[in-house]
Design a protein that fits this description.
167 residues, mainly beta, Pnp Oxidase, Chain A, seven-stranded antiparallel sheet, three-stranded antiparallel sheet, 11% helix, 44% strand
Length: 167
């Protein structure tokens, strides 16, 4: 084995699901950020974890309103997922700018993209400082799936984006 830097490790764990972290702005509209670092933490009760860079506008929103939806977009909107990672919701309405069609889910006022494969509705219950990121542990209240959508995955350390189909 050879030693590598941790930033190189995602190349060797591919494919990795990419997501939107959807939160609510003060005006009631949905803010969306691109999120790569997330995982299941428990299935009974349902919990997930995700990590956000300390400079993220979403951190400010989650401090005020701890409700969140983690949405795994379908491959049809992969380009919009990547585009959302290039600007801050602090000064940009990404939904309008990138032409993202949204849908409502029961149990939350936060909208998600229409082409979403899987959505976790929950609330932040704990946070942990992880140096340049903040880890969020979330209680999951509802989970929605659209099996007709193929999820978006990062391949080769997020250098490529495609669905993850066997075959």
């Amino acid at each position: 084995m050879k030693e590598i830097k941790i930033a190189q490790a995602p190349v060797f764990t591919s494919p990795n699901p990419l997501t939107f972290i959807c939160s609510q702005k003060e005006d009631g509209t949905t803010n969306m950020a691109t999120l790569a670092f997330w995982t299941f933490a428990s299935t009974n009760p349902g919990k997930i974890m995700f990590s956000l860079n300390k400079g993220a506008y979403t951190l400010e929103l989650l401090k005020k309103n701890r409700e969140v939806v983690v949405a795994l977009p379908g491959i049809d909107i992969a380009n919009k997922l990547i585009a959302c990672g290039t600007s801050s919701g602090r000064d940009t309405n990404k939904i309008e700018k990138f032409g993202i069609e949204m849908q409502k889910l029961d149990g939350t006022s936060i909208s998600v993209p229409k082409h979403t494969r899987l959505a976790f509705v929950g609330s932040v219950c704990e946070t942990l400082d992880a140096d340049d990121h903040i880890i969020h542990l979330c209680d999951i209240r509802k989970v929605y799936v659209d099996e007709s959508e193929n999820g978006t995955f990062g391949w080769n350390g997020y250098a490529e984006f495609a669905s993850a189909k066997k075959g």
